[in-house]
């Protein structure tokens, strides 16, 4: 009898909770419930207008379902609550292997988009890699007589630089050669000018009591990008025949909370208590300013790792103006404002020759896509016979941040 009563109570409680969940969207129309934001996810869903035609085709039901699931304010609260519970109990942001941000060791967040490269899931695209570094060397040879250095930069990522931060269950290294190893052989063959910041940071780590990435950020921290720009400045100064003062990257001050640039991953993780993941971050103190013989324009082509380098070039006076061609698809000037679609018809010979230096980058996860087609484009622009060598211009989509949900 008692067991039967318990079963009935549990049944009614279950039915009540289901009914409550079904009526909450309607209740939110009558009761003002405060909303919480979700980074990277749409929140504005309106209850659709009744239409027999839409009902007959099933579109009305679909829109009502989406509104009921996400249009009410409790959905955003539930996302942050679930993510926080998962992180607190399991140390991960999401149990979904398809998430764009995940929890690692020592309180670090990491991006699964770099996992395939770390595990060598596929053989490297040898042909594309060799074509890219041949194109880099060719671009350097073409523009050198015009007084324009072209510098290739290999930037790091957290997993490549600190694989020890990755939980063991994600490690499944295959026997394939890495794209990075194949790229090193191509670099040795064509001998282009490369600033391998990945290796520089790896070899410099013992000189610093912290990592070059912050636990809550997707890119190198201020000291890491300082080490990168110091080496790039040396190359530019040697080419221009000018003495560019070097930033003292070893002189820094710890600051809490870290600046927004070091918090982008925790923001898209959509936790209830983001601040609990913040750690003091290092920021360089000594930033000498360069006064050159003339104003300098610098063109940068590649990934979001160039954001920090562009900022430092402008702050230090090494560049008086900059243009960033983001993935060779979008354009922005001087590190401010929004990106605009790139019209490559405007990238003429005269426009290229108006710059005093060109910096192209790619991540250590795939150096063979350096320039994202820009190098082949420029080579063909100055030497039409180069167009026939454009066999493998990379077709690469930008890797955006997607919020955890």
Q: Using DSSP, what is the number of strands?
A: 11
- Rg (C-alpha, Å): 26 Å
Please write the string of helix (H) and strand (E) elements.
HHHHEEHHEHHEHHEHEEHEEEHEH
User: Termini, distance in Å?
Assistant: 44 Å
What portion of residues belong to β-strands? 5-15%
- What count of domains describes the coordinates? 2
Helical amount among residues, as a percent range? 40-55%
Number of helices: 14
Main sheet: strands, sense, barrel: 7 strands, mixed
Shape: elongated
* Structure classification: alpha/beta
Strand order of the largest sheet: 4-3-11-7-8-9-10
Low-confidence stretches: 391-400
Mean pLDDT: 87
Record keyword descriptors for this entry.
405 residues, alpha/beta, elongated
Secondary structure blueprint with pairings:
Elements: H1 2-30, H2 52-57, H3 59-71, H4 73-90, E1 102-103, E2 109-110, H5 115-118, H6 126-143, E3 150-155, H7 158-161, H8 179-190, E4 194-196, H9 197-204, H10 222-240, E5 252-255, H11 264-269, E6 281-284, E7 297-302, H12 306-316, E8 321-326, E9 330-333, E10 340-341, H13 349-353, E11 357-363, H14 374-382
Parallel strand pairs: 3-4, 3-11, 7-8, 7-11
Antiparallel strand pairs: 1-2, 5-6, 8-9, 9-10
Helix pairs in contact: 1-3, 6-8, 6-14, 10-12
Describe this entry's structure for a reader.
- The structure is a single chain.
- The chain is α/β, with parallel strands linked by helices and about 400 residues long.
- It has 2 domains: about 20-90, no CATH class; about 105-390, no CATH class.
- It is built from 14 helices and 11 strands.
- It has helices spanning about 1-30, 50-55, 60-70, 75-90, 115-120, 125-145, 160, 180-190, 195-205, 220-240, 265-270, 305-315, 350-355, 375-380; strands at about 100-105, 110, 150-155, 195, 250-255, 280-285, 295-300, 320-325, 330-335, 340, 355-365.
- A 7-stranded mixed sheet has the order 4-3-11-7-8-9-10. Strands 1-2 form a two-stranded antiparallel ribbon.
- Strand 7, helix 12 and strand 8 (about 320-325) form a beta-alpha-beta unit.
- Helix 1 crosses helix 3 (about 60-70), helix 6 (about 125-145) packs across helix 14 (about 375-380) and helix 10 packs across helix 12 (about 305-315).
- It is elongated and about 95 Å long.
- Residues about 390-400 have low confidence and may be disordered.
